């Protein structure tokens, strides 16, 4: 458990789906992912003078290389606040552990005076879809049961609800019902947060805010039957968790920067 030293609004930044590679000029669908990440981080630092933590929610790497995780560590190492990482379907845990093992990057529960953030691993080895193992659900149960009056934000890589996109909805969390069964026992849960879908969404269900966040590189077009790349720019999500359990959040995107995207590609 990691303590976030604030008794006021907890200010978080989420970045996701960075898709970095062993090569500095590595790309996804034609976009150089390290370059786009740096542009997003520059925007974060320009827009937010006070941040308590950054959540990095999966598909950190495109090729699973140790070097790609080192590149991410270097890019985030200049930030004046901690970051916390989760794996996605493209990540390789053994390579990721070379960088994260024994560091705060592996923390699963973050707590401030009024909030806790629970980070869950939804990765399934060799698969694109997600699943929360019993051990992950137990981490969640334990954290929620011991919240001691704190409100809760829960994050993972894969989406637990439909995105109204046929191809994307085949690769979400396969046992989302088990997740929701746990969540619904605890009325202090306020937010579920994820990446994976490379697009922004904001829903409210049973009093819980359901949020997805753009990738720091290529975006996927919402509400499509088949794989389709969007033309909108990379971005990130900011989240302010207030002491009374309310939430302020939004998405910011880079602008005035040219990104090359190969729209002819039919999968990633």
TrEMBL record:
Positions of transmembrane segments: none
Location of the Calcineurin-like phosphoesterase domain: 10-199
Secretion signal span: none
EC number: 3.1.4.53
Record Gene3D superfamilies: 3.60.21.10
Family indicated by similarity: Belongs to the cyclic nucleotide phosphodiesterase class-III family.
Protein name: 3',5'-cyclic-AMP phosphodiesterase
Gene it is expressed from: cpdA
């Amino acid at each position: 458990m990691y303590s976030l030293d604030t008794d006021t609004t907890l200010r978080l930044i989420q970045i996701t789906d960075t898709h970095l590679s062993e090569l500095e000029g590595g790309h996804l669908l034609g976009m150089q992912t390290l370059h786009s990440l740096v542009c997003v981080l520059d925007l974060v630092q320009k827009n937010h003078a006070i941040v308590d933590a950054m959540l990095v929610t999966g598909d950190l790497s495109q090729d699973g290389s140790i070097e790609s995780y080192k590149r991410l560590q270097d890019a985030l190492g200049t930030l004046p606040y901690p970051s916390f990482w989760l794996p996605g379907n493209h990540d390789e845990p053994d390579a990721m552990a070379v960088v994260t093992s024994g560091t705060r990057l592996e923390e699963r529960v973050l707590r401030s005076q009024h909030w806790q953030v629970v980070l869950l691993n939804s990765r399934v080895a060799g698969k694109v879809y997600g699943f929360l193992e019993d051990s992950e659900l137990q981490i969640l149960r334990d954290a929620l049961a011991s919240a001691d009056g704190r409100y809760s934000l829960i994050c993972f890589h894969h989406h637990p609800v439909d995105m109204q996109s046929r191809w994307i909805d085949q690769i979400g969390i396969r046992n989302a019902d088990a997740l929701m069964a746990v969540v619904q026992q605890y009325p202090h849960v306020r937010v579920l947060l994820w990446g994976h879908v490379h697009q922004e969404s904001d829903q409210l269900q049973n009093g819980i805010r359901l949020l997805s966040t753009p990738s720091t590189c290529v975006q996927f077009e919402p509400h499509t039957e088949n794989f389709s790349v969007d033309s909108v720019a990379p971005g990130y999500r900011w989240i302010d968790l207030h002491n009374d359990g309310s939430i302020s959040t939004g998405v910011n995107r880079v602008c005035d920067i040219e990104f090359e995207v190969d729209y002819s590609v039919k999968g990633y």
